[in-house]
Amino acid sequence: MAKLSKDEWLDIRSLWEADPKLSFGALASEYGISKQVISVRAKNENWKRRGNLADINRKAIRRADALTGSVKADEKTDDREKTDETFTLKKEVGMEEAIDRRTDILVKHRHEIVTLDSMQSEAKSLFDTALKTKKKEDFWMAKIAIDTCKDHIIAVSKKQAMERKCWGMDECDVSPADIAACTNEELDCYTRTHKLPMRFRKIFRSYDDS
Predict the structure, then answer these.
(1) Which of 59-63, 126-130, 164-168, 186-190 has maximum average pLDDT?
(2) Does a structural domain hold residue 12?
(3) 171-176-78-57 Cα dihedral, nearest 10 degrees
(4) Domain count, the chain
(5) What residue numbers bound the domain in which 17 lies?
(6) What global pTM score does this model have?
(7) CB 105 within 8 Å of CB 163
(8) Of 96, 115, 132, 200, which is least surrounded by CB within 10 A?
(9) Residue 89 falls within a domain, yes or no?
C-alpha cells in the first residue's frame, strides 16, 4: 500500500470535502490506499463535507456550455479561481476538481447526443430512399439503421441517467412543479437572492443559503 505525503493527504481531503458524491472508495482506488485508512484519517481530523451540489452543477453546466459552443463567445465567463498549490488554497482546488468532473461528463453526454442525432438523420435518409426506390433491400437497410439507432438511444439514455445519478447531477434543482407552487412574492425573492423559499429547503437537503 502506498505511503502518501502530507500534500497528497491535503489533496484527498480537499477533494472529498468539496464533492458531496465523491466516496472514500473512489479516492482509495485513485491514490492506491485502502478506504479504511482514509476513513480513520477523516474521523481523526474531523473532515466535513462543504460542497454544494446545486452550485457545483450550475458551474459545471456553464463550463460545458462554453466548451461545446452553447453560448456566444462574448458570453463565456471563466469562473475558475486562479490558485497556487498552497495549504490555504487546497479547498478551492478541490472545488475546481468537483466542477471539472461533472463538466467532463456533461460534455461527453452532449457529444453522445450529437452522435445519436447523426444516426437518426442517417436512418431517416435511408428510409426516404427506400420510399422512393421501393426496393426490398433498401427497406431492409433502413430497418437495420432504425433498429440500431433505437437500441443506441435506449443504451445511451440508461448510461447517462446512471452517470448523472452517481454524481448527483440532477439533485438540488428546482423543478417546474416547485416553481408552479411558488407565490409571486417567493419567485421575486428567489430571483433576487437565489435562496429557496423556507418550505422547500427540507426537500433540497444539500441547499446552502449562506
Answers:
(1) 126-130
(2) yes
(3) 10
(4) 3
(5) 1-51
(6) 0.61
(7) yes
(8) 132
(9) no
